[in-house]
Design goal:
Elements: E1 2-7, H1 13-24, E2 27-30, H2 31-40, H3 44-54, H4 61-72, E3 81-84, H5 90-102, E4 109-114, H6 117-124, E5 127-130, E6 138-140, E7 159-160, H7 167-190, E8 194-198, H8 207-220
Parallel strand pairs: 1-3, 1-4, 2-3, 4-8
Antiparallel strand pairs: 5-6, 5-7
Helix pairs in contact: 1-8, 2-3, 4-5
The structure holds adenosine-5'-diphosphate and zinc ion.
The site of adenosine-5'-diphosphate has 18 residues, from helix 2 and helix 3.
C-alpha cells in the first residue's frame, strides 16, 4: 500500500502519517525530516539544503527526487509506505509514479488534509518537536501538550521549536504551498484517488480522529 499525505505545513500530516503508519504497519517517510537531517551536516549539500529550508523555499525538484528515490530503495519500504511531504509538485508526482512502477507498486490513495491558513499559523507557532532522532514526536501546546513542559512523553528527550516554525517563515511556506499544491491535488483528483479531510481548529478533531477516519476509509474502500 502506498499512501501520500498532502496538505499545507501545520495541518498535522506528519502526526497523522505516523499514527496511520502504526495502525497499518507500514513505514512513514517524511521528506522534510530527511532534508532536515541533511541540513544538519556541515558539508556543501547540507548547507545548500539548509538555505532552502530556512528561507521557506522548496528543495529543487532534481535534488529532492534524487534523495527521496534513494530512500524508497531501502528494504523497509517493501510492504508499503506512507509518504509525507513528497511529492510536493506535479513534476515530483509524475516521477514518483514512474519510480513506483519500476517497483511494481502504485499510489493507492492521496490524502489531503485541508485547514484554513489562519488556523495553520496558530497551530505552527505552538508546535514543538522532540529532538531525539529516533523519536521526533510532535506536540502542540494547545491540542497535544506534553505532560511535563519541554519534555517528550515518549522518550524524555527535550522538545524544541523548529527553526522554520515562526510566523514569518510559515506565511512563506504557505505561499509556496498554495502556489504548488493545486497542480498536485488536481493530478490525484484526475486519477480518482484523492481523499480530502476538511478540518478547522474549532471542531476539536484530534489527529487521532483524523487517522482513524482515514484508516476506516481505506478499509471500506
Ligand atoms: P512543512 O510541511 O511543515 O513545511 P516539511 O517538514 O514537510 O515541513 O518540510 C520542510 C522543508 O523541507 C520545506 O519547507 C522544504 O524546504 C523542504 N521539503 C520537504 N519536502 C520537500 C519536497 N518534496 N520537495 C522539495 N522540498 C521539500
Ligand atoms: Zn521523544
Amino acid at each position: 500500500m502506498v499512501i501520500i499525505m498532502l496538505g499545507a505545513p501545520g495541518t498535522g500530516k506528519g502526526t497523522v502519517g505516523k499514527l496511520l503508519s502504526e495502525e497499518l504497519g507500514i513505514v512513514h517517510i517524511s521528506s522534510g525530516e530527511i532534508f532536515r537531517s541533511y541540513a544538519k551536516k556541515h558539508d556543501k549539500l547540507g548547507e545548500q539544503i539548509e538555505n532552502y529550508i530556512s528561507n521557506g523555499l522548496l528543495v529543487p525538484d532534481e535534488l529532492a527526487i534524487q534523495i527521496v528515490e534513494k530512500r524508497l530503495e531501502e528494504p523497509d519500504v517493501k510492504n508499503g509506505v506512507i509518504l509525507d511531504g513528497f511529492p510536493r509538485t506535479r513534476n515530483q508526482a509524475i516521477v514518483l509514479d514512474y519510480i513506483l512502477k519500476l517497483q511494481r507498486k502504485m499510489v493507492d490513495v492521496a490524502v489531503e488534509l485541508d485547514l484554513p491558513d489562519d488556523d495553520i499559523v496558530d497551530r505552527i507557532v505552538k508546535r514543538r518537536t522532540c529532538i531525539n532522532k529516533n523519536c521526533r514526536e510532535i506536540y502542540n501546546l494547545d491540542f497535544r501538550p506534553p505532560k511535563k513542559e519541554g519534555i517528550c512523553d515518549k522518550c524524555g528527550g527535550p522538545l524544541v521549536q523548529r527553526i522554520d516554525d515562526n510566523e514569518e517563515t510559515v506565511r512563506k511556506r504557505l505561499k509556496t504551498y498554495h502556489e504548488t499544491s493545486e497542480g498536485l491535488i488536481n493530478y490525484y483528483k484526475r486519477e480518482n484517488i484523492l481523499y480530502t479531510v476538511k478540518m478547522n481548529n474549532e471542531s476539536n478533531t484530534t489527529t487521532k480522529d483524523v487517522a482513524i477516519e482515514i484508516r476506516d476509509y481505506l478499509q471500506n474502500r
